[in-house]
Design brief:
It is built from three helices and eleven strands, in the order αββββαβαββββββ. By secondary structure, the chain is mainly beta. The longest helix is centred in the middle third of the chain and has 8 residues.
């Protein structure tokens, strides 16, 4: 897509991933913005098999919206530039779990969850997306295992009645965050440092 879209509120909220059912709301100028449902999944490969890990636990640690989130134009207002002054979320790294036996322990050790219990994302800005209509690119700072790096996220939005579905993905390198790709089976299993983080969330304004 070659046109500018400024949904600061949407991508920031979408990164409430970065996900499952999340209780709580964001503090807005006129009304809170609730997260109806969401899920975040990390996927990667090894020399033996593919793997995934996911979580439904996300905390909003900072959020400030400037637009009114009420009435028939609430999502149009959220799409305007400057709708978000600040947005930051934290994901407890130890809540990431995989259906593959034995993966969780190695993953949590690689993420250094004892010393750095949270994965933190702070939204910085937006840029035009390069995909289909409704595609955006968000830029933010991601902190994993105590290391911060600027990352970009491809995001799409879709209105569904009074709610908004936001989903997207980011491709990362473990080594960019000082993470040694986990190994197992006496080194026979080796993990590729490339991972993909996918997220999906549904936003709504709670009834008053």
């Amino acid at each position: 897509m070659k046109r500018h879209i400024g949904p600061q509120a949407l991508l920031g909220s979408a990164m409430v991933l970065t996900m499952g059912v999340i209780g709580g709301a964001l503090a807005g100028a006129q009304a809170p913005l609730a997260i109806d449902s969401a899920r975040i999944t990390i996927s990667g490969t090894s020399n033996i098999h593919r793997y995934t890990a996911s979580t439904s636990i996300v905390r909003v640690t900072r959020a400030q919206l400037t637009c009114p989130m009420e009435g028939p134009d609430m999502w149009a207002n959220a799409l305007k530039p400057g709708a978000v002054e600040a947005f930051e979320i934290a994901i407890p790294a130890a809540t990431l779990t995989s259906p593959r036996e034995g993966l969780d322990k190695n993953m949590h050790e690689a993420l250094k969850v004892k010393d750095h219990p949270d994965i933190v994302f702070r939204l910085l800005r937006f840029e035009p997306g390069s995909g289909a209509a409704g595609t955006l690119r968000g830029i933010g700072v991601l902190q994993v295992a105590g290391i911060e790096r600027e990352v970009s996220l491809d995001v799409t939005t879709q209105r569904e009645g009074s709610t908004l579905k936001v989903q997207g993905r980011a491709r990362l390198l473990m080594t960019d965050f000082g993470i040694k790709p986990p190994t197992a089976m006496l080194g026979m299993l080796k993990t590729d440092p490339k991972v993909t983080v996918a997220f999906q969330t549904v936003l709504a304004v709670p009834l008053t």
